[in-house]
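step=predict obj=CD209 antigen-like protein 2 n=169
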Amino acid sequence: MAEMHSLMDSAGHEEAKNEFFGAKESSEKEASLLRNLRRWPGCLSWAALTQLLPLFMFLGLFLFLATILVQVSRLHQPPRGSTEDQQCNRNLANFSQQIQLNMKGIHQLLAQINASLASLCHPCPLGWEHFKGSRYFSRSQKNWEASSAACQDRKAQLVIINSEAEEVQ
């Protein structure tokens, strides 16, 4: 029985020794971790970091997949700038055609105005009166011979006024 007790003691001693030295080894590890944590205050422990590692991996994978999704969606969309540029070019071409048509119309109007101005008589000199395409010079009353001589000097013709409207003008 003494032998058994000694075997148990030796087995118990071994267990106690392993327990003590194992505890000593784990306490040494914990002490070194505590020293390391004291160097970096506010840092998480390794246990907390290992628990957060799957979360960080998931977030990284999520960001990677989101980036790929955005890039693929950009590939399948027509470029916005090119359609806007094409629309602007079409609008510019239409506007240019309208301007050319307007300029053509303006040139035609100017040609008509110039033609009508060329056919008009020149403005009357100072002292002359204009009435329905005719010009009248003198308001003074002279006899027929004196009036006829004055018209010939000016290379004009002496006329007879038959209407009151022409005379009043």
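step=describe
Strands lie at 129-131, 134-136.
step=end
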